[in-house]
Amino acid sequence: MGLPAFLFLITGVLLNAAAQLMLKAGTNRLGVITLTAGDWLATLVRMATERHFIGGATLYVVSLVVWILGLSRVPVSLAYPMLSLGYVVNAIAAHYLFGEAVSVQRWLGIGFIIVGVWMVAKS
Fold it and tell me: Which of 33, 56, 71, 115 could pair with 22 as two cysteines, CB 3.0-4.6 Å apart?
């Protein structure tokens, strides 16, 4: 995999991870979201006007474009496993940004993901 392809893919992964973090920040501001028959429209409007949700959706769109640029350069069987790095980024960021607990078992799983992606990238 060449450097440009790698940069597109890793940028897509990071943008996707940032989108998830923005969406989580939005849910932290709004609380538990339920769509009931009586308030689904009002809830959707609150979501659509919450700045973290808008930012998250925007990041998703940009990440999609960047990801497509990367996919045009490498086989999907090589690119798709790179998305797993988003788990790593989000676990670390959620720990520091939101105070989420990351257990030893989860850290071990994250280590396996990193090794697995490295092995796929080297193949």
Answer: 56
For residue range 46-84, what is the model confidence (pLDDT) as tens digits? 999 999 999 999 999 999 999 999 999 999 988 888 888
What does the buried/exposed string (b/e) look like for 96-110 if buried means 16 or more CB atoms within 10 Å of the residue's CB?
eeeeeeeeeeeeeeb
Query: What's the CA gap between 113 and 87, in Å, rounded?
Result: 8
Start-to-end C-alpha separation, the chain: 9
Task: Provide the pLDDT for residue 95.
Answer: 92
Handedness of CA 95, 96, 98, 99 (dihedral sign): positive
Amino acid at 28: N
Which pLDDT score is estimated for 8? Answer: 95
User: Residue 19 in contact with residue 59, Cβ under 8 Å?
Assistant: yes
Tell me which residue has tokens 């790593």.
Answer: 88
Count of residues making up the chain: 123
